[in-house]
Design goal:
heterodimer, A: about 425 residues, mainly beta, 5 helices, B: about 500 residues, six-stranded mixed beta sheet, disordered N terminus
Chain lengths: ~425, ~500
């Protein structure tokens, strides 16, 4: 019954949109790309449509958790759309959401058809290299079900040091972008680490509604072979930070974002009711936008309401030993309310970094740079990460029995999908 | 912002914002100092009401200065010197016993047992109580170490601390007044200072301080300006129950107001000591010039955990609970705050204090944050490598009109990495100058902006548990304020 009324309602709104879209076509959505990508000027008209020709963006295009960063150019461009949509919870219910979709390289005349009402949960993962110059275009596509909102959107790169206001995406100190318009953000990431991004416009509502994404900056040290620990015979060539001695080296990388949803809050937004912040009560607890067991479903998850695969990202972590040994988990919390205390029984976790900074104190006695200072990393059984915090966990699987382990929130009320038990914020670490 | 659902709220927001001064809010740490080495304070404990920006009024219990007998939320901040013997004479006008404790500092009048064996109805404070309805009690503690501390009632704490019987204590170190020069190595200030306008780049830049949070020995807790952030929370239903009775299940306590220094946003950005907030004299709106070092003192007096996020830059946490983060507490002059860490979000948890240093210079944006042309004079602490940077030496970025740049605002092509969107496509905020550059302005949508006359960069400092950005269901508000990074040409009034 509920689904039926939803479809009828969606049809009504779509009917209205058909009348409106031609007018949008005349509106220019200004997109900026740097001149020297692939040595030819880029604009949206000539943007190629195939992956191979699209250029060197570092973005998780299909949600498989892989992103290429083999580019030789430091110029990157990304185009995100901000819109609404649906996603499916592990108990089978659909939730109305706001979110971002990756529009990079998409021809302009297909953007609304491809993007509108197709928010991704979570937002596309963005990974950049230290020293990149990143042009991020945000196009506000509007909300299919809530044209009455005409909300602006922003992208806030959370935790970027020495930020300017114009590219910080915090609308009190800058601005949001209106529907059917585009803003270009420019970033020059020089501090590697694990970050997050989200819409900061009416932040409480837009974040709870799903405009949340993973963000990481890879260090310049990558590509250097460093033996760690010294004399162990084990070398790494990819690292979480410029640690000098290789202590954040890893073989396998995972990004896990904890968030949660209050279905009543989402339902109220869907049926044109004002949000109720005071009564907020999360009932779904998600890793990368899914509750267990959907977290270990390798494929995309398609919702029933608009038939779109909004949840492209799984949270399966696989370590193929002995070639792979050390696991880096970039843990991000973007809940609007809850702390998560994450544990993985059977595995020992080291907190190597917090808030995108290597846990190492300054050393006033010498001036030798990042390699100096006290090692302030520590080992934990359970790692607490609060809303707006990131931590980098390193798990050494050397000598660990092969098999399947669980990574989950030890907060016991975060282990269900509404009324469905044995779910929530949990995923598997498989050591083969 | 302009949603149907918010239209009714706009008058409220306007009313609450109308009294905010033009951005250079006074937010230095206000409080009571007395005279060293034996400052004495006369306190009252009594009841009054606080105001919230949504028009709410909640009963609270607060400590106050007996000279005015006005209870405050939070109580008066005590600012004393290391080594002082501090005396507080408390008169309790509440209807139940009240006491004062000073966690982290040595009390000289301890009462035991505080939990008589076998009598669970007799849980009392570890310090002597002031009797209800006018009873008095005297408390003495020795401020034997520098740092950020707090006082709170030791009696019936589940009720009295929810009701607001707490306040901050700042103990200034004996090192103050000496001069220490700190070298900005190893990202101490996270790309804040290590490139100064002197033309030197890289590590090795020095800065000299004469005021410090701790006896660090090396200047690692030195600062130019200091600000206090006392965080707390309230469930309005609890306070209504305390005032009017009825039924209330305290196990269902759920915060719907969140405070910094006793005010909900946006009242946090109002001036201190304003007449419309008689019981909430302290504001919380930090201001600084680029390259200045702020000392941020956090005191967590709420029931819940609050992840506090600082836009703009990381905070270097140099101390917790009044203890320098040093490997050698016995000899800090050797090590300084060498166990400190950097946080973009710092969780405030009940009864905890943190001290952190913060700065901002906008280094390595890869564009000139001031919009300088090559050859323009440098601003203090400006990042030299970006000075007058020609961002796109060939052409400005193209646009959909076929490659021709569209002039929007005043973006000078020599520095902006991208073209600004036309103002019709944006909705700007109260603190938006219209310009990407510090110290410049540009046209904005009529009716927007207006709270940033010196064209500073403003960064939101707020709880990242985003539900806490509301005032009892109304967004925006709650645990929120703005840091103003103002150009050196602007005067910061303190």
């Amino acid at each position: 019954m509920r689904t039926q009324s939803r479809i009828i309602f969606t049809g009504l709104v779509l009917g209205l949109l058909v009348m409106v879209i031609p007018a949008w076509g005349a509106t220019s959505i200004q997109v900026q790309y740097p001149y020297d990508i692939d040595n030819f000027p880029y604009d949206w008209i000539s943007a190629p449509t195939t992956m191979a020709a699209r250029g060197p963006e570092d973005i998780d295009w299909n949600g498989d958790g892989l992103y290429t960063s083999t580019t030789s150019t430091r110029f990157k461009y990304i185009r995100l759309g901000g819109t609404d949509g649906y996603c499916k919870m592990a108990d089978g219910t659909d939730q109305y959401v706001f979110g971002f979709i990756n529009l990079t390289g998409m021809p302009e005349d297909t953007i609304l058809a491809e993007g509108l009402n197709h928010a991704n949960i979570p937002a596309p993962t963005i990974v950049m290299n230290e020293g990149d110059e990143v042009y991020l275009n945000l196009s506000n596509l509007g909300m299919l079900l809530r044209p009455d909102l005409f909300d602006p959107h922003t992208v806030h790169f959370h935790g970027f040091p020495n930020a300017s206001t114009v590219f910080d995406g915090e609308p009190m100190a800058s601005f949001g972008i209106r529907p059917h318009s585009t803003v270009t953000y420019y970033y020059h990431p020089v501090d590697p680490g694990t970050y997050m991004y989200h819409c900061h416009q009416e932040a409480t509502e837009h974040m709870e509604m799903g405009m949340l994404g993973n963000l990481a900056v890879r260090p310049a040290q990558n590509g250097t072979s460093i033996e760690y620990p010294a004399g162990s015979g084990k070398s790494y060539n990819q690292f979480a930070y410029n640690d000098v001695d290789g202590r954040t080296g890893y073989d396998v990388e995972a990004m896990i974002k904890y968030s949660d949803m209050d279905p009543i809050f989402h339902r109220r937004d869907e049926i044109f009711q004002p949000p109720r912040f005071a009564e907020f009560e999360a009932r779904y607890f998600l890793l990368n936008g899914r509750g267990y067991p959907d977290t270990i479903v390798p494929t995309e998850i398609t919702n029933s309401t608009n038939g779109y695969a909004a949840q492209k990202m799984n949270s399966i972590i696989t370590v193929n030993s002995p070639a792979q040994r050390t696991l880096l988990i970039r843990l991000i919390n973007l809940s609007v309310q809850h702390f998560a205390s994450v544990e993985a029984p059977g595995l020992t976790m080291k907190v190597a970094a917090k808030c995108a900074r290597l846990l190492r104190g300054p050393n006033p006695l010498d001036g030798t740079g990042p390699g100096a200072g006290n090692d302030t990393s520590y080992y934990v059984t359970s790692a607490l990460v609060g809303p707006g915090e990131t931590i980098d966990l390193i798990i050494d699987t050397d000598g660990v029995a092969l098999g399947t382990y669980y990574l989950f929130s030890r907060n016991l009320d975060q282990l269900n999908n509404d009324l469905m038990d044995r779910g929530g914020a949990m995923t598997e670490i498989v050591i083969n | 912002m302009i949603m149907l659902k918010n239209i009714l709220r706009i008058p409220l927001l306007i009313i609450s914002l109308a009294v905010i001064p033009l951005s250079q809010a006074d937010a230095r740490i206000l409080g009571l100092s007395g005279s060293s080495p034996a400052p004495a304070f006369n306190f009252t404990a009594s009841a009054a009401h606080i105001s919230t920006p949504d028009g709410g009024s909640l009963l609270f219990w607060g400590f106050g200065d007996a000279s005015t007998a006005v209870p405050q939320y939070p109580g008066p901040t005590l600012i004393v010197n290391e080594g002082d013997t501090v005396t507080i004479n408390l008169t309790n006008y509440l209807t139940e016993p009240v006491s004062m404790t000073f966690p982290g500092l040595a009390i000289s009048s301890h009462e035991a047992p505080h939990f008589p064996m076998g009598d669970r109805t007799q849980l009392k404070s570890v310090t002597p109580e002031a009797a209800p309805n006018g009873g008095t009690q005297t408390y003495t503690f020795v401020a034997d170490k520098a740092g950020t501390f707090y006082y709170q009632s030791g009696s019936n704490q589940p009720i009295q601390l929810r009701m607001g019987l707490f306040g901050a204590i700042i103990v200034r170190p004996i090192q103050n007044g000496t001069s220490k020069t700190i070298t900005d190595i190893d990202y101490r200030f996270l790309r804040g200072l290590y490139t100064l306008a002197t033309g030197t780049t890289g590590t090795g830049i020095t800065k000299t301080f004469t005021q410090f949070a701790y006896n660090d020995g090396d200047g690692s807790t030195g600062y130019d300006r200091e600000y206090l952030f006392i965080t707390s929370d309230m469930d309005p239903a609890f306070h209504q129950w305390m005032e009017f009775g009825g039924t209330y299940d305290i196990s269902k306590w759920k915060a719907n107001y969140w405070f910094i220094n006793g005010r909900c946003g946006p009242d946090t950005m109002d001036m201190p000591n304003v007449g419309n907030l008689p019981n909430q004299p302290y504001n919380a709106m930090p201001s600084m010039h680029p390259g200045e070092v702020l000392l941020v003192r956090y005191v967590a007096m709420g029931r819940d955990l609050h992840p506090f996020h600082t836009h703009g830059n990381h905070v270097r946490i140099v101390a917790t609970d009044g203890n320098l983060l040093s490997t050698s507490a016995a000899n800090p002059s050797v090590t300084g705050a060498d166990l400190s860490w950097l946080a973009f979000t710092l969780t405030q948890f009940p009864g905890k204090t943190f001290d952190g240093t913060f700065t901002w210079t906008g280094s390595e944006l890869n564009w000139d944050a001031y919009g300088h042309k090559p050859g323009d004079p440098l601003e203090p602490y400006e990042y030299l490598a970006d000075h007058g940077k020609q961002f796109s030496p060939n052409l400005p970025p193209i646009n959909d009109a076929g490659g021709l740049p569209v002039a929007q605002g005043v973006a000078p092509a020599q520095a902006a990495p991208v073209l600004m969107p036309s103002i019709e496509t944006t909705i700007g905020g109260l603190f938006w100058s219209g310009s990407p550059y510090l110290g410049s302005s540009a046209p904005i949508v009529p009716g927007e902006g207006g709270f940033n006359p010196s064209n500073g960069f403003f960064f939101m400092w707020h709880s990242h548990a985003e539900r806490e950005l509301t005032n009892n269901d109304i967004f925006p508000g709650g645990m929120l304020t703005m840091l103003g990074v103002l150009p050196w040409s602007a005067t910061i009034v303190e």
